[in-house]
Amino acid sequence: MNTVFSQRYEIIEGDLENLKGIQVFSTEFNYDKLQVHGFKSEEAFLKEKLEQRKDNPEKAEEFKRNWFENREKYYNPAFVAYFNDLFKNQECKITSEASHLMKVNLTWIYPGYALEPAKLSATIDFYKREDPSKKILSIHFDKVIGFERKTIAVKEHERIIGAFEKLARNLAIQMKRVL
What is the pLDDT of residues 167-177, one digit of tens each? Predict the structure, then answer.
């Protein structure tokens, strides 16, 4: 196994050079093994957040619904848009259909607080669509600190968007080295 540590990333399998010449990726996001900082599981996190809102069942349900809906509504699109914006000459981009897949597996999240940015850990796997059993590259980013906003980000999803954008940036930086 080839392992590289630098700027809080680790090559788990393959090599960044394996991406050379690939200009278009489609993407999938996987939250199945997401751990929330300070909790044994995502379910334990949600249970506590719902318990905190037990006097207002509507707010509790809204929190739970938003926790899951914000993934498709904000986080995934923020990652894709930020990644694509970093390649101004379209030397690499994410589209809905491509022969290669970038699978973003979220493994850990710290949602942050009004004055503290969110953080994410994720393993990003790259495959040829025609042979998904063989990874071209697997790279793990550990505790990526989200972009800090100039204003206080009271809404949790705003802080988490910053972490997804920073994850996209960190990946793009590494990919630009080989493209």
Answer: 999 999 999 99
